[in-house]
Amino acid sequence: MIPETPGGVLAPSRPRLLALDLSRVRLSRALQLAVAYLAVAVPAVAMAFVQPVWQLTDEAQHTDVLAQYAHGVYPIEGVTTLRPETVAIMVTTGNYRWSPPETVPRPAVVDPAQFGPPPPYLSGDTFKLWVRRHIWWFSYEAMQPPLFYALATPLWAAGYGAGGPFVAVYVVRVFNALLLGLLGPLALATAWLLAPGRRLLAVGSVAMTAFLPGLMLNGSQVTNDTLGAVLGSACVLVAARMSRGAWSWRGSLGLGVLFGLTLLAKLTDAGLAVGLAMAWAWPALKLRVPWRHQLLVGAASAGIALAVTLPWLVLNLSTYGHPVPSEEAARLIGAGTSGSHFSFAQSLNYAFQTFWTGEHKDTLPYTGVVVCAMLGIGLVAAVGLSRLLRGTAWLRVERGALIVLFAALAGQSAWALAVPSTSGLGGMTPGRYLYPVVAAAMVLFVAGFWSRVRSAGWLTAMVVVFIGMSVTNQVAYAFGKTAIGHAQRNGPPTYAVVRDVSGEDTYRGVTVSVDRIVTDRRAGGIWIHVHVRNESLLSADWSSNPQVKFSNGVRAYGDYPSSAPFPETLPGGSDYWGWVRLGVSPKRVPAGTTMTLIFHDVAANHYRDVRDLTIRLNTP
Question: Which CATH superfamily is domain 499-618 in?
Answer without folding.
Answer: Gamma-adaptin ear (GAE) domain (2.60.40.1230)
